[in-house]
Protein: Cytochrome P450
Organism: Boletus reticuloceps
Amino acid sequence: MPYGDRWRLHRRFFHQTFRLGAVPRFLPYQHSRACHLLQRLLEAPENLGDHIFEYTASVILNSTYDYDPASREDDLVDTAANVLTIVVPAMRPDIGVILGAFPWVLYLPSWFPGMSFKKEMEVARAYSKQYLERPFEYALQKMVMFILITHPPHASNDDVLQSGSVAPSMVHDGLRRMEDDSISVDESFVQVLKEAAGTAFLAASETSNSFLTTFFLMMVVNLGAQEKVHAQIDAVMLFFGKPSDIVLPFLLELHHVVIENHDVI
């Protein structure tokens, strides 16, 4: 995407939702899902990959679309999984370079030698449309339903958000900003918001899942670090009683492991 008004609008959507001062809004939900992840790990540790993906997809879907998946088998969580396994591999850099240099290649049939990627792109295109449209439509419908059911006919998006009936999310923040700035409901504006939300969903799904998976791998292969982190967690929990974001500054060993793991991002 070239630098311009559209690019700046994308950046604005990202900044207003995920800037440092706005992140604490999502901590209660993240804490709830983290406890859910730990419970899942206790019940079925052999399904580590599924549990991690359920957690990361839930956190991302919630902060982007105000959607709370019921389980790993949730329809939108499956959509996220398909995006990572089908769409991301189809976006290979080498294909982008070739198509950029020789755009006429796109007109060759998929049966032509070396053109099998066109079939992969067709499948990826279908899933891309799903992950762009379905969660976005859910967020819009949820906002409209709350306005119609729980508020007077002329209630604003701001009234709905302040009442707590709609949780903060990237889509709701964008619609709220549109009203605050007196921007008319415009198809191009909504399309940019949809694209920005889809980009956040896609990018965060891959990096968050990779980060957590790598963290667990490091704990398994580095027993010394695991023992130090475990001992420190036990000591801190003895004082605080239960896990929360308040105890994080006291978990220095865990912080060191996370910092070492940051390169996966």
Residues 187-221 form the longest helix (35 residues).
